[in-house]
Prior knowledge:
Helix content is 33%, strand content 32%. The chain has helices at residues 20-33, 64-72, 74-84, and strands at 7-15, 41-48, 54-61, 87-94. The chain has one domain: Alpha-Beta Plaits (2-Layer Sandwich), CATH 3.30.70. It has a four-stranded antiparallel sheet with strand order 2-3-1-4. The mean pLDDT is 94. By secondary structure, it is an alpha+beta fold.
Amino acid sequence: MTTTSTITLVNILSVSPEKQPSLVALLQENTETVITTLKGWIATDLIASADGEQVVIHSQWETQADVAAMRSDPRMVAYFPKIAALASLKSVVGEVVMSHHR
Length: 102
């Protein structure tokens, strides 16, 4: 088993298909203007499901404290209701315990 020292945050957002493009645009804007400026941020991937019913945010952070700080940043606190207006959210924080690449 291979582990990493970084923290992975996976957010799964359930959305109605007609709202998925607006949700993706909102997430992309926030990632580019806020997330990338936060301490400990490493990377973010946005994945839009082909059926239009989900968007997955896969991000990596240096520490779990950085994830907590991101969630309490005033810009994020103001942003969360915008997400909630479009989608429901399930969040998982953990470490990658295995990764295979070709």
